[in-house]
Amino acid sequence: MSFLEMFDVLNERLIEEGEDPIAFDHDCREGICGACSMVIDGKPHGPWAQNTTCQLHMRAFQDGDTIIVEPWRAKAFPVVKDLMVDRSAFDRVIQAGGYISVNTGNPADANAIPIDKKSADDAFAAAACIGCGACVAACKNSSAMLFAGAKVSQLALLPQGDPERKTRVIEMVAQMDKEGFGSCTATGACEATCPKGISITNIARLNKEYMRAILSSEEA
Amino acid sequence: MSFKKLLTSAVGRKLTMGATGLFLVLFLIVHVGLNLCIFANDGGEMFNRAAHFMGGNWVPRVLEIGLFFFLIVHIVQGLILEMSNRAKRGIGYEKSYGNRGSKWYSRSMALLGILILIFLILHISNFWLPNRVHQGFLLGEEINLYDRMKVTFSIGWIVIVYLIGLIALAYHLMHGFQSAFRSLGVHNNKYNKLLTCIGRGFAIIVPLLFALMPLSFYFGWLS
After folding, report:
1. How far is CA B165 from its chain centroid?
2. pTM of the model
3. A182 φ, ψ (degrees, to nearest 5)
4. Half-sphere exposure of A220 (CA within 13 A, CB side)
5. Do B90 and A74 count as a contact with CB atoms less than 8 A apart?
6. Record: fold of A3-70
7. CA B99 to mean position of chain CA atoms
8. DSSP state, A51?
9. 3-class DSSP state for residue B141?
10. Predicted ipTM?
11. If pLDDT is split at 50, 70 and 90, which confidence band does A86 have?
């Protein structure tokens, strides 16, 4: 039985007893959508490494264990109800700059722009971020730098990301600040917690992109 | 306001912390080099000559102004960051994450920094301030810093405070050295691994060399 199936069973019982079911986020239950956000026994997504809550199974616990389940805790992720939090702050960070300009019309040929394998691999690894928010939940500063670092890196590594390269990083960092996320202390907690193993190298790349964008900006 | 963002955004604040931190690392190298002069074991002659040069030459004096400026920026930015970051969580967790997959000293940079600041206040009032006051500004004569060290480091509690300050410095550098480069955008893993190794070596060797001074005087290892 998976951890979320355990919640399904629990909620069925609560409904039968005439009580309110426990509200929690879930969608794909395949570890790819990033919706299932729970801090389980103090760890975002539970005790298994590089794993989402939906992919956690009850065999991770002993019979009779007391399991403490909490929502993500960060001011930028206000709790909606029980274990559900509002993560639209991430959407607004993406809207601020996490896009590229493309021509409309027929789709372009695949692989028309040559990209070296290392950059493609690094961009793909950064693109594996599912935006679940575990990095924020784990960080002592509630920082979203791993999330933003992954999104900025993914596009900075590819030629398709070049047109908005400078404005992207400045706008996304500004939105991150506006949403109330903290700054990075490079403790590595986010990397250790991320269900997709996103590397904190992406944070250093974001820092470089930011510094370059600010220093080369025409703005006084 | 582009330059303002370098001082006020979450990323910009870390950039200034990293840049000022690395300047302070350079200062530590100069300072420890000067301190090692006491081990010439010549009754402090070489050390006092080095101290005289540092106090009397205009180049180190100008750099000293920069040093205090960067030190103050580092302290103020660090405190602002810590207070701001602490406020971002809101309601805390019922059950703690434990080590969060990170080292305790990387999570305690502000605390270690405050310990270093307390040590610095004592250190500056012990040596730098009396020396600068005497060295031409007011009284026109130099203090024999070597003799002053002998007296100061014969007091047990001062030696203990210095050692605590240096242990705090060691752990602060253990994280801060490599973290500063990350904040400045070094993302190549080849360099990150190298910088982590250099940082660990620096964090152990430099505070150890500093600690040799009070210990040598207290235990009478110097003739």
Report:
1. 9
2. 0.92
3. -85, -175
4. 0
5. yes
6. Ubiquitin-like (UB roll) (3.10.20)
7. 26
8. -
9. coil
10. 0.88
11. very high
